[in-house]
Design brief:
mainly alpha
Amino acid sequence: MDMQNAKNILEQEKLRLISELGKHPARNIEADRTLSSFNKASEAASEQSETERQMKLFQRMNLQLAAVNHCLQKITNGTYGKCDDCGLPILEERLAALPWASRCLACKAKQSKSMSK
């Protein structure tokens, strides 16, 4: 993937994420929690479950935005397409599928394995 194409894709993804985060219901989570305390127990439990799901989605989108910003910085630095851990090139197929990938498959697998412990 050429740098200009990668940059365009990453900038579009950044704008999409910022827009989604701006209108995501998790932004008003504290107000929702206060209101749920006045509802019946079963409704409150259901609301709590939905709130937790929305918070996880909100956190995931924030992490993805951070990854996109990181890769945009790597383009600026001239290191885009190289693994953050080992410095080897990231496969073109991986970058095409996941332009905000900053680790090669081997290093990503190591990271995932160490996080699951």
